[in-house]
User: Fold these one by one.
Assistant:
Number 1:
Amino acid sequence: MQKYIDYILQQAKSLLAIDSPSGFTEKVADYVVEEYQKLGYEVKKTKKGCVLAHIPGKDTKDGLMLTSHVDTLGGMVAEVKSDGRLRITPIGGLNANNVEGENCKVYTVDGEVYEGTCQLVDASIHVNDKYDEIKRTFHTVEIVLDEGVSSKEETKKLGIENGDYVCFDPRIVITKKGYIKSRFLDDKLSAAILLGQAKYLKECEIIPERDLYHYLTAFEEVGHGASASIPENVTEIISVDMGCVGEGLECTEHQVSICSKDSRGPYHYEAVKKLILTARENKIDYAVDVYPHYGSDADVALSAGADCRHGLVGPGIYASHGYERSHVDGVENTFRLLISYIK
């Protein structure tokens, strides 16, 4: 088991190191395609950039799809300001409070990459006597480029334009106690778990009871990740996303979370029940929770017309959409549940 947990953690590091806000996911999708090909699976990219891998099962009429996403939160240049700094607009649920003081990169359409930092406008406490009073929004924070620019014209001369992507440093750390800290664990940690499952099945020569698909989507954070390209024989979709950790919820970073209901409504009772019973039978540490502010690719697939049962699981992650934290225990429990579920 440890061999596959180590593989998952290494894959998580590799995925997190590739900048990939929604719509800017070509490099991370190509990486995932290559990893599935190395494992010997049939895999393709969809027209909009999602990755679909097929793991043949015994029952070809009753397909199961496990979906995670490789797109993340990020920013986009909305204005090159008169002083050469950048106003950005958020991609997905990026929050200005969570990116102040963070290092970032600006990618131009010409292939240039410029470094910078997201700062409060007039960020020096020794100068700005309103520092504590200012509400952090994307109009009160800005990108300060690590370039000698002080005017709009000088910044634009670098090739920076409106629409350029702004990607934030994930700051990946795995502690000696097993805590995993990084931006964008939602959902690259679960994408790594799917790769771990694929490796496990291949090396152990296990054929799933049902046709199995791994669907790694590229637009989940903006709401339409799994809205298309679902194979016709899929009858059940399980979203493998982050498990919520916070006040009023039972899950911790050490567990696998099973979601019974999110802000879009309840998940399919039979799928949720089977996930719970599978966890119990295999002595997997789990929690069942209702997520108050959440939507998943499984929700999106059904909203787009998929006639499937649906569910949601994932490793417990604290501080979602900020500097997130999980634990190796949560990874292992999620991995074990997914392995047990497909048997």
Number 2:
Amino acid sequence: MRDLQDRLFWLAKETEIKRGETTDVYFLNTIRVLREKGLEPEVVMEVYARSVPYVHPWGVVTGIMEVAKLLEGLPVNVGAMEEGEIFLTAPGSVLYEPVLQIEGRYPTFAAYENPILGFLTSSTSVSTKAARVKSAAGDKQVFSFGTRRSHPALAPLIERAAYLGGFDQVSNVLGARLMGKKPVGTMPHALIQCIGNPAAAWNAFDEVLPQEIPRVALIDTFYDEKTEAIMALEALGNRLYGVRMDTPVSRRGDLRKIVEEVRWELNIRGGKNVRLFVSGGLDEREVGELASLVDGFGVGTCVSSPPPIDFSAKIVEVKVGSKSVYRAKRGDIGGRKAVYRKEVCFEDHVVLAEQPRPTDTTALLHPLLRKGRIVRKSDSLDKIRANVLKKVGRLRSLVPRLLSP
């Protein structure tokens, strides 16, 4: 039974997003009023987040290039941070640093506020959470396992944002393909349940699948983890690359002690080279607690459905005649901003755009579109990810600050 005439799923088409049809109706009301009154005001709009849902006030902005593709062809100028840049917030202050600025006649881009914020919020929320999880894991591998708990249309976005945030590999087939990567993963509990015997399932996996897929046995289906780890070593011997514990919270107890038991029992049986992987409801706290014991983590829901970063888009300047007038709503601060960073201490300075650059700083906002034409070349995913990892690594030993003169 179908309840839609022109599509199978409740999804916006790319063409509908590009035409601004995924907007809120009050933007259309505004455009109608302005145009019928003969008004086409030139404005500067800034997109920013006043806070992030974490103790440490920083995020990893992603989705910038999707915004560029959205606005391409419109008569606007856009400046933005680079994809994967670290932005700071100051929750106790009115101060903020814009990640994106749009300059143009307001009616030409008003209908795009919804998708602009949606692109940035969805992607940045994932990449920011992923960066925190990867930071907690240190040099241990982290795999993205979370797209099953998000809308399937968002799977490629989630995998890209998780990878840019620092995750090592992703499991979603389409997400990996669009990034030019190979998806990772071995087996679900369903395989073992269908065959009915863990050892038989592991052997069947070993017999059927190509050798480039690591033999990682899932070891918590019918018996406890220690028992199934021993069974897996006996079944596969030196072909056993690793074991994965996906212990549900209701049966978990002290997960660190479970991991220690498994490691001990494998070691005394000659399985010192068998790698340990843990998945199932993990967040950065648990990853940090286990990082010294395990070789890798499968992290899902906390990254694919992270706490949202609440981006806003507000007008800060309006051109009246030949003069630009600072004009901010209550609770905001007027004027086009510039953002500069002292890299050595991760200290950001927010000033009016016409003010001089503070000493020993670099600018964080750069041209993205000029008269609707994209003027920035996007770096490769691997280069962006490497830059994110480098900067997040520095944040582990620095206290970033957001300042204004």
Number 3:
Amino acid sequence: MADASAIAIVGAGPAGLTAALALAAAGVRCSLIDDNDAAGGQIFRTGARERAYLGKDPRGARLRAALQAQRGLIDYRPQSEIVGIEPDLALWVHGPAGVVERLRPRAVVLATGALELWAPIPGWTLPGVYGLGGLQILLKTSGVVPRGPVVLAGAGPLLRLVAAQLLACGAEIAAVIDAAARPSLGQLAGLATQPRLLGRGVRWELALRRRRVPILSRHTVVAIEGTRHAQAVEVAPVDDEWRPLPSGRRRIDAAVIGLGFGVRPNIELTRLAGCDHDHDPASGGWHVSRSDALETTIAGLFVAGDGAVIGGVDRALAEGALVAHAVAARLGLPQAAALAAGAEAARRRLAGQRRFRAALTGWSMPRPGMFAAATADTLICRCEDVTRAQIADAVAAGYTEIGPLKMSTRAGMGLCQGRSCTPAIQHLLAALAGLPVAQISLPTSRIPIRPVPLGAMATLGGG
């Protein structure tokens, strides 16, 4: 058997869990490191109202049961966060004991999932405004159902999923505001290549229609009204690039607002490791460069699931099987042969999903106009209270690269280290400077990528 420290998998969502279980089934030990209390990631989270939501997926429970059965081969480390990665793949792990330790695996699989994509608008920092994923986490983990009228706005499958889940748990959905148009006939034909997935979307839609929830396509929320908390939203129609139009606006009362234009790959650790990255809107924006074996430009560092390319749970499950074989092959393990059949089956599944993913991307892929609703005094970086006007002034003064702009305004230098605001800063900089957003580089990242008490690092040492 391979040594337990030889392979480290970061993230116990669909991709990471599948990779760890595939390796264990072949007799390969690995470490599975995750910052949550329980395995499953965002898609397979458990909680107080787990049985209440529409379309519960049983695969999460099966994966967790399999993990429990394989604890002899999988060194599972919950409540452990990676706060650093070095070029030689050494990992800085901040665990539940409150100390940071350095692991030195021979290969690392990053399966860190996705981050929500926010578009700052006036009033988005008011109490009562959440990300769609945040509302879903509250529902899944704590059974929190919003009181009062709820407006959900953005685009992508998560918009209708969260609406249907909240509705099934008794929430009052005042409206669903979708920037995307209705799918075209060609897009519907592509979606129909995966009948199970299309069927889930149809069920969400029908659940909303049966309860007569207004669904406004080709519209977006351009402002949130309120003094001490959110009270209403202003909604506007949008053009093909999702830019708000001046006419046809309306006001909808809302006590709780959920915003989200889909998700983007979480590339914090790949940036820190020094991997090459590319920009492609169809892949979620900036994403890490990978070989066919899912290996990055850093030898021995692999990325699987939404942390590499936004593709959803089925793609993540398939890539988990692929990366298990790829890591074993990279390390020259004899068990690689036993993993080859599973990897080949995963490739076939991915090929079968290709038309569906292309159609879904064509329908709901974020458009640059989604960032156009921010006004001069809209906060872009909420950690450092940096407004759109301050960023515009810095660009006018000649700060047309992300690094100098960051140093000039402190945008992206706060507690979240740009997790929330980086896409908005990049798109705003690109628009103000007259550049394609693909030419706006990524900001630098440094260890530790999360706040860590100084005492937690006292025993780290230099070895």
Number 4:
Amino acid sequence: MIKLAVRAGMLGPLLFGIVLITLTILKYDFLLSLGWHPLNDPTFDWPSGLALGAYGWIMTLTFITSGLMLTLFASGLRLSLPRSRLTLIATFTLSLAGLALAGLAFTTDLTIRSTPATWHGRLHDLSFVLLGITLMPSMILLGFAFRHALQWRSLSSYTWLTALLAVPTFSLKGSAFYIFLLAMLVWCQVIAIRLKPERTN
């Protein structure tokens, strides 16, 4: 399980980042037609809008795959960290964040539209909110859990600093959102690398 969690923690962020960049390049004109702009309005129907139109199924599948990988990664952390209520709550919350990420596979509604909101668009928006209210708290809790294990203690402050950076950049609808994505992807990689030598040798 821990070996699978390590692979999930390392491959999940890479998959998400590669797909995000590739589809943004391929669908650049389409995104512009929706009202998106990489600098002036980078979160306008992005990245959710990548699941619309041509190649949209790739983004949908990536949401599901990356979300399930994050949930699997959380399970590996639960097994690696000292058993405690704190560890259980922290990793359970991270698992919920993974499920919320997978929930972004529900097709989003366009911001500019003449039709009412759809059921799948509402579920997409709800999943985005749930991702925000589970991912950052899970990281804060994990920071405390890391302090109770010698081999993880050095990552406690890093986890808290990442969460501190992520909260405002997740909330701000601007180019700061890029920082949020990068910080989250790098954090998963760093934690997965630390998980690997402790339990998989």
